[in-house]
Every structure is written in C-alpha cells, then in structure tokens.
Amino acid sequence: MIRSSGKAGTDWRLHATYDPTEGRFSQLEISDTHGGESLSRHKLEEGDIVLGDRGYARTPGLLHVREMGADFIMRIGWSTIRLLAPGGSRLDWNAIYAGMQPGDIAEHEVLVDHSGRKRGMLGASAFRARLIVRRKDEASSERARRAIWFAHRRKQRVAAHPNPLTVASADFLLLLTSVPACEMSPDRVVATYRLRWQIELAFKRLKSGLGIGTLPARDSQLARSWLAAHLIVGLLIDEVVSDSLVFPLLSPIRRGAHLSLWRMQRFLRNVLLGAVFGEHRLSQIGQGLVATVRNLFEPPRRRISQFGRLHALVGDACADTGITKETRE
To answer: How far is it, in rounded angstroms, from Cα 23 to Cα 3?
Structure first.
C-alpha cells in the first residue's frame, strides 16, 4: 500500500513479482485500492515456482498458475481454501495435528475444491496437491497465538473466544504445493518457501531507499507519473546491482564479508539522481568510482602480507591445474 500525503489524495497499491534468483523485480503494476491481490495479475512461464503468503492463497489464483504451466508453494490457513481428503471427505485437521512435536514435518495428499460457492457436491471440481505441515517451536507458537487473540479483540467479534481450530493451527506452518513429491521433498518445500521473505526486503528497500512509502502528489495522474518514474529508477538500480554481484572488484576480500544491497542501492540512487538532475558532473562520478575501487586494495608493501601470500598460492595452484580466473568466478 502506498499512502497519499493528504486526505483528498488517492491511495495506491503496487503489485510486484520478484525473482529471488536474479535479485530483481520482474513485473510491476500500479492500481488503486480497488485492485485486489491476486496471482491472476501476473504472467508466468512453464516451469516457474510461485511463492506466496496467505493473501494470495485463493483458488482462482492457483488455477491461473496451473493453467500457465507453473507450480506454486503457498502458505495457507486451515480455512483459507477448501481442502478435501483424497476420498472427497472433509479434511480432519485435528487428526493431522495430533502427535506432531516441534520441528516435525508431515505431508498429506489433498484435493483442492474449486467447484464454487453454489457447488452441487463437494469435490465435483478438484485437483490434487500436497499439504506440508510443520510444527513450530514454542516461542513462534506463542507469538502466533497472541496475534490471534489481539486480532480477535480488535475486530470486536461477537464470540468471546476465537475458533478453537484457529488457535490450534497457530502451532503449525501450513504450506500447499503443486510441486510433485518426486521433484521436491517436504523439507525442501519448507526451505524454498523461506525465499519469499526476499520480496519483503525488496519492498523495504524501495520504500526506504526511493521514498515511495508516501506520495507527495494528490492528483491521480501526477501520482501515477511520480510512481512510474521512481519505479524506473528502482528497476535500473536492480539491473546494476545484479551485475555488480558478479563484478570481480566487488568480491569480498575478507572471509565472511558481504556486499550490502542497502548500501549499494543508496549509492546507485545518488549516482542516478545526480546524473538526471545535474547535481554532479559525470566526470566527478567517475572520479568517485575510481576512489571507491582504490579503497578496496591496500598499497604495495615491501613485506608480502598474509593475504598476498594466500593470493599467490592460489594463483600458482590455478596455473598448475589450468584453471583460469573466469572459470573460478
């Protein structure tokens, strides 16, 4: 959600597809608040695996993913989607949860019912999927239970207590996937879903680095233009950052060091905006880049440093084995 700066302004939603393997956004769409979140907004290719949280766990979106030849790994709630047992009966969640200890992972074959609200019979239209259930640790379960009670009180429900099954489900991570078991084990499904957190970090970088969290414009056309311009800058930064990750001079010298995407984004934002608005001459930017690269290296010494000896040994070993610098990188 992108808020307007005034009461008369229009709030907007940014719908995005993020590729964690490339470290960049692949699709961006701007809509007003009437544009809901849905997987149907995004174009997919055959072989893609879509990761999504409970906000995207809707049957029409899952059908869209399947029709595009892709697979999904979605986090769900016990009542988010109508799931059936393989025989077509209702799923017994209490039986699924019974006996699981913290850290345990279980897999169940289920049917996803998409016959609609006016369905004549349960399971008349359904497709097969895998339900992956992981028991959380006690600390995570307690945080989830507190969140359920807080939401229940904030919404001022008529019932004095939340649904017992909702409270019981707070102890579990529920994932629904169409990826076949022969291609991905339950442990791998859980590990893959954790990559979804990267899109949360990418949105935080957009809001903090580019300042799109709040709109300075109230007019709808001007707001769209402002958002589009900032998103173009964000895409340019993603492109440069993706290339810089494999740039030899930016490889960490010290073991354990890593390149900060936040600092890199801030640096590239200043460079791009400076070039666009004329705050800096390109020659000055080039001088700054040269100084930055120089700071990565130590001046020559009479006595070879420990890193210098290690670098020489690695170079000799590569020369003996015929491995070039390009193949090692």
So the answer is: 26
CB 178 within 8 A of CB 129: yes
What is the value of pTM for the model shown? 0.73
Contact 205, 261 (CB under 8 A): yes
Residues 18, 194: Cα–Cα separation, whole Å: 14
How far apart (Å, rounded) are the C-alpha atoms in residues 22 and 199?
12
Nearest residue to 96 via CA among 135, 70, 147: 135
Task: Give average pLDDT by consecutive 10-residue segment, the chain, 329 residues.
Answer: 67 85 83 82 91 91 93 94 90 94 96 72 74 95 90 71 90 96 95 89 79 75 84 80 59 55 72 64 57 50 44 43 36
Tally of CB atoms within 10 A around 287:
12
131 Cβ contact list (under 8 Å, min separation 6): 83, 96, 107, 108, 109, 110, 174, 175, 176
CA 218 to CA 222: how far, in whole Å? 7
